[in-house]
Amino acid sequence: MHQSVASWRMRWWQSIWGALLVAVLAGCSTQAPSSKTEVMSEVAPAPPAPAPMASVTADARMAAPRAAKAESTLGTQWGEGRESVTKVVQASRLTPDTPRAVGQLRYSDEESIRRVLGKYAERQLNVLLADGDVELAIGAGEGSPVYRVYATRGAKDYHVAGRKGDRYELIYINRSNRYYEVVATVDGLDVLSGKPGSIESDGYLLRPGERLVIDGFRKNDREVAAFRFSGKDRAYANNTPAGDARNVGVIGTALFEVRLNERDPDLPRRRAPEVELRDPRAFPADGDRYAPPPVPSPRYSR
Q1: How far is CA 102 from CA 105, 133, 153, 156, 251, in A?
Q2: Is 185 within 8 Å of 191 (Cβ atoms)?
Q3: Of 7, 48, 112, 180, which has the fewest CB atoms closer than 10 Å, so is most exposed?
Q4: Interval 82-125: pLDDT, tens
C-alpha cells in the first residue's frame, strides 16, 4: 500500500512537471515572434541600395562637366616682321611674387576642340581676368573679327580655334582704373625675350582704359615677328633651343598690379639690339631682352 501511494505520487509529480514543461515551451514559442516584431518596429527602415558608380558619375558630369582639354594640332611660327614700337617704363609690382591673375588658353583646330568638348561647348568673344578688370581676346588682325573662344560652362577650359597660316594677336583691354603689367607667353616662350616663360620676366604696361595689342615675338624695340598658326613642326618653340615641344599649343597670361615710378613714362627709346651688338660689352647676356630668330631644329631635320 505504501509503495502504491509512493508510485502514484511519483506519477503525479511527473505529470505536473510534464505539464509545466509543456506550458513553458508553449510560452517560449509564442513569445519569440512577438519580441521580434517589436524590435523590428523600433528600427528605421533600411536605406535603399546606392546606385551603381557609373550612374553616379554620369549624373555628376551632367550637373558640372569636368574641364576638357583638346590636344593641340597647331603651333605658332615666327612670322613676318611687323612694325611695333615700344619704350621702357619704370614701374614697381605691388606684389612682386604673386600675380593678380593667371590665365591660360589652349588652341587647336576647331574640329578637335568640338570633338573633345562635345555638346557642352559654348562660344564667347573674350576671357575675363583679374575679377573682370582685364579682358583678353584673340584677334585676327586688319579689322577682322576676333577668334571664338570655346569653353564649357563652369569650367576654365578655354580653347581657341585656329587655322594654319592665319595670323593672330593678343588683345588686352583694361576696364579698371588700375595699372597692370602683362607677362604673356606663347607655346611656353615669353613674347618679349623668347626665353622660357616666367612670372619674373618683364612685361608690357597696360594703363587704365587702355587697349594693348601683342601681335608677335619681339625682335627689337621697333619690330615683332608676327604670330601665325602653323603645324607643330614649324612652331617657333620647336625651332629654338629655349623651346619645349610639350608646351606647344598654349597661350599664357600673368597680370601684376603695378605702380609707376615716374610722372612721365615716355622715356627715350633704346637703340635696337643689332646696333648695340657692334660694340664690345662687359656683360653681354644682360642685353638680350628680345627673342632670337628661330634656327633649324635637329628634331625635324631630314
Answers
A1: 11, 13, 19, 11, 11
A2: yes
A3: 48
A4: 999 999 999 999 999 999 999 999 999 999 998 888 877 888 99
Do the beta carbons of residue 122 and residue 152 sit within 8 Å? Answer: yes
Q: Report phi then psi at 54, rounded to 5.
A: -60, -40
pLDDT value of position 126 = 93
Under a CB-based contact definition with an 8 Å cutoff, are residues 247 and 236 in contact?
A: no
CA distances (Å), origin 283, targets 223, 280, 287, 288? 24, 9, 8, 10
Low-confidence ranges of the chain (pLDDT < 70): 1-70, 154, 263-288, 297-302
The predicted pLDDT at position 258 comes to 96
Q: Which three cell numbers mark 272?
A: 635696337
Nearest to 202 by CA among 89, 116, 122: 89
pLDDT of residue 268: 44
**Sequence ranges of the domains in the chain:** 75-262
Are 250 and 105 spatial neighbours (Cβ–Cβ below 8 Å)? yes
Q: Residue 204: which residues within 8 A CB-CB, separation 6 or more?
A: 86, 181, 182, 184, 192, 212, 214
